[in-house]
């Protein structure tokens, strides 16, 4: 069980997020120490911003209303100033901070530094329990257990493909048995800056998708340790085959920032607009740029974006109850 002090901290920050429902994903770097078949992040050669530039971006986003920051990449742990970025978000801006890592550079000392910096959530990319495969093996659960002991809510994040979809139940049961949250993303083939256009790895069997949806919904009700929202899990069979969803052109419930400081409607498309150059999100330059991207986009089913635009009161209640049960 997580200490009550940790739950209270997360609850207090989450209330702030309800008042200003904007989330931001920050691509701290495109560099990575893994080569994953479904990710193009390390192929991008944009220059990384330095610490002072990232602080200016965080200031601007916080001024827009962002109070939940996700740090991603590439691999965030490849930045030597990562701990200061986390500290600035959590202690200076009093905001929630979530980090996604492949855990290849994760050690007990690093976890202690992350906790001291104020990190609220950490996710380890893990697609299989098979140690012989990329992003596989159960050893990561030991590190996640240490994170929980240090007051960081820990989870695994699995990318579901045709290759590993039958292994997801075992991953889920392992996570729940270890007291860890299970999170997931479905393989995407948008063909932008993050994903390839190859549909080969996609789970294309509607029956398999329905089984996955039902399984995860049952586990969510019973354990409270399934991170994706009820609405997202229910939408999997119809929203993924084919893509039927696009993000809103008018609303900004989430923002994405490239590692060079440019604003992105999502992780697939980058604009020429520097975040720090915007006075407000109603700026017509940004509104037009986002509209053009959404109109040309073929659509996707990224859970991270879908959930932020489709949250219901029941979703919020279930996820809040899940937090209490941690």
Determine the number of helices (DSSP H or I, runs of at least 4 residues): 11
Radius of gyration: 18 Å
- Stated plainly, the CATH topology is called TIM Barrel
Terminal residue distance: 5 Å
By secondary-structure content and strand pairing, the structural class works out as alpha/beta
Provide the CATH superfamily.
Aldolase class I
User: Which oligomerization state do the chains in this entry correspond to?
Assistant: single chain
Largest sheet, strands/sense/barrel:
8 strands, mixed
Low-pLDDT runs of 5+ residues are none
| Percentage of β-strand residues | 5-15%
Strands in their spatial order, largest beta sheet: 6-5-4-3-2-1-7-8
CATH architecture term:
Alpha-Beta Barrel
CATH class: Alpha Beta
Extended strand count: 8
Number of domains: 1
> In which range does the helix fraction lie?
40-55%
Pattern of helices and strands: HEHEHEHEHEHEHHEEHHH
Mean pLDDT: 93
Shape: globular
